[in-house]
């Protein structure tokens, strides 16, 4: 009988160790996922600041209301004729921006919870030439409450 009790105790100790290791792995993976999501958002912000029609900052709330700070990163003035976020047009009439000049654009781009990834398109004119920018990289972020 003593041998069975010892085996049962050893089994419970081993099972407890396995459960503790599994919990540690879950916690570490959870932190890693949060860290990688934050890194993706930071990478997105760095990318969008440097595009020809740069997006310096943006905020989107859960109901979809959005505000974007746009800057002309060209070496000449541009006229923005269209600016779409998630296929939603945010410009009602053309916006002229001198070199380095900024403007704010706002609109309802569709809300949600958690993370978002939006496509960006811009139609603009510089030196009398019509140009179109279609994002290769998504604009990433987290909805504000």
Secondary-structure blueprint:
Layout: H1 2-50, E1 53-60, E2 65-72, E3 78-85, E4 88-89, E5 95-97, E6 102-108, E7 115-118, E8 120-126, E9 129-134, E10 139-142
Antiparallel strand pairs: 1-2, 2-6, 3-4, 3-5, 3-8, 7-10, 8-9
Descriptive notes:
Strands 3, 4, 5, 8 and 9 form a 5-stranded antiparallel beta sheet that branches. Strands 1-2-6 form a 3-stranded antiparallel beta sheet. Strands 7-10 form a two-stranded antiparallel sheet. It is an alpha+beta fold and 145 residues long. The chain has one domain (39-142): Immunoglobulin-like (Sandwich). It has one helix at 2-50; strands at residues 53-60, 65-72, 78-85, 88-89, 95-97, 102-108, 115-118, 120-126, 129-134, 139-142. A hairpin with a 2-residue loop joins strand 3 (78-85) and strand 4. It has 1 helix and 10 strands.
Strand fraction? 35-45%
Radius of gyration: 25 Å
Q: Which residue ranges are poorly predicted, with pLDDT under 50 across at least 5 consecutive positions?
A: none
CATH structural class: Mainly Beta
Number of helices: 1
Whole-number average pLDDT?
88
Can you tell me the CATH architecture? Sandwich
Secondary-structure content class: alpha+beta
Q: How far do the termini sit from each other? A: 61 Å
User: What characterizes the major β-sheet?
Assistant: 5 strands, antiparallel
